Amino acid sequence: MNATPAQAGAPRARRRWRRWLLVLLAAPVALVLLLWLVVWIALPPERMVPLVLAQLGESLNLEISAEGDPASHLGDRPAFVVRNVVAREPGATTPLLRVDRVLVALPWSTLRSLGDTLDLDHIELDAPVLDVPALLHWQASRPPGETRLPTLADGLRVRNGRVDGEGWRVESLALSVPRFDPAQPLRAQARGRYADDAMRVPFDLAATLVRPDSGRGFALAGRASLERDDWQLPAWITLSGALHWSDGLQLLPARLGAHARYVSGDTTLPFALGLHGPLRRHDDAWTVVPASLVVRGEGVVPTFDARGRVALGTRLVASLEGHIARWPADWPALPPPLGQSQAPLATTLSYRGASDLSDPLHLRVTRDDVRFDGRLRVPQISAWAAAARQDSPLPPLDGRLEAARIEIGGARLEGVVVEFEDDAPATGAPTP
What we know:
Elements: H1 5-42, H2 45-60, E1 63-73, E2 79-88, E3 97-105, H3 108-113, E4 119-120, E5 122-126, E6 129-131, H4 132-141, E7 151-152, E8 156-164, E9 168-177, E10 186-196, E11 200-211, E12 216-227, E13 232-241, E14 243-244, E15 250-264, E16 267-282, E17 285-297, E18 304-312, E19 316-324, E20 345-353, E21 361-367, E22 370-376, H5 378-386, E23 397-408, E24 411-420
Parallel strand pairs: 4-7, 5-8, 6-8
Antiparallel strand pairs: 1-2, 2-3, 3-5, 3-6, 8-9, 9-10, 10-11, 11-12, 12-13, 13-15, 14-15, 15-16, 16-17, 17-18, 18-19, 19-20, 20-21, 21-22, 22-23, 23-24
């Protein structure tokens, strides 16, 4: 039996419907392919990269330029390589950032938005130079909430970087950040060397910043060593606090702990140290005012608790008042009744001089009715304490000891005054 016209048209209608369905399903794929083709033909790398940098700079209020022939790879994850990148505030003479080579990998969604979306995959920086004063000035000029930070799904890697501050710098910086999201905790590993006119501090540290967008909740741990020409202070340190950038670099408050060794020649003095207080960087110094300090050690290192102020820059300035819990075992033995007392020693020390403690330190120690006022130099005291056979039973110092009474060789002396001079244990005999 022959099919009716209606019956014959049904298969043709179904075939047309399937063709339209295939067209509709293929349209998105065709549009993506067309986009790739348009970007590749109309925006080759030498045109695409400046456009992306210009859009990114506009969103951050920065002038960003790049020299040289950029290379790019367009695939599942577009990647761009540019060289001699310079970023600065509009009209500024000092660049905020200079980089020899930058590799940026980003998703197609960011590329299509031309910088409106700052979602990136990965960034590599070779030999970047960051200027901290210019960074702080740019950040202070940004309206609250308008400084957008990109996300980095595959993190950041820095090789041979440098950070320039006012009177200080970080050299040979190697930095690894597995992932960056302004709203998520930031974890990083950093190696390099801090340097200023007074000292060098090589370091290898792990750091965490709980909220990168607000800067609060900062912590680091690892190895660092304070170094001068004639001494070193290698240490395992921890540092934590609330990080602030608005008025210079600040940790409010800072909590510093260190297990360290003072090493100079054949002298090695291990000790533990804790410091608490607001840490600020301004002018050419780091300051902790007010500062709470604790020192724990053995031998010649006393158990010391104090409060006061500390500043470290081209010079070290310290003013502390506290107490030594007990007379250290490796200090000269005190005659009775001084050595029999278990009372702590009220201690005041002040120092203003070179950061290696080579200048005189002023010291006042009081216990019961005994008081010592004097000056000493830490390197000479350390050498005296470390000597296998001490030439003198008393340390090298200048000062004056006053005591209501002491007992020597079975004799009791009252109203005792003893004066000391460096290289001479006592220039004046006890007088009644």
